[in-house]
């Protein structure tokens, strides 16, 4: 592997770029403030940056993605890349791939339904919600009052029922006394 692709070189390159940029900025600050060290520092920083840009111009760019690890020979124009089904001589587990794709499809469908629900919620007009809440509060207050009246009515009904039962008992006693008086009257006549 070339030295410029090794990890230590990439670290060193980033270190030199960062230090050079900071020297340029400090030199610019010194120059703006008319400090005596501003001129030499900005010169040193700009020289360092110029050398860095020269080095970066000469070195080939790094690969952003390492597709050649998945598809060996991808970077070579004349290479013969094996089809995906052979996967470099290994059989591709199509059942596993299909299962994963089905799971992904289910997740996407769930997300789609969730987004549809959110869209429906977004379209709801909440501008009159305050008035609706006030009306509901009034409704509940009237409902509580009606329930209280109904409870009182139920208590009155219970007392009425007890009074009627007492009246029935009294009437039964009175009928009994009247029956006795009638029997006595018929016996005396």
Description:
75% of the residues lie in helices and 0% in strands. By secondary structure, the chain is an all-alpha fold. α1 packs antiparallel against α2. The termini are far apart. 3% of the residues are buried.
Key words describing this protein structure:
elongated; 189 residues; 75% helix
| Tally of DSSP helical segments | 5
Overall mean pLDDT score?
81
Helix/strand/pairing category: mainly alpha
The global form is elongated
Order of helices and strands: HHHHH
Helix content: over 70%
- CA radius of gyration is 49 Å
| Strand residue percentage | under 5%
Low-pLDDT segments, ≥5 res: none
- The number of distinct β-strands equals 0
Summarize the structure.
75% of the residues lie in helices and 0% in strands. It has helices at 7-32, 38-58, 67-70, 94-123, 129-188.
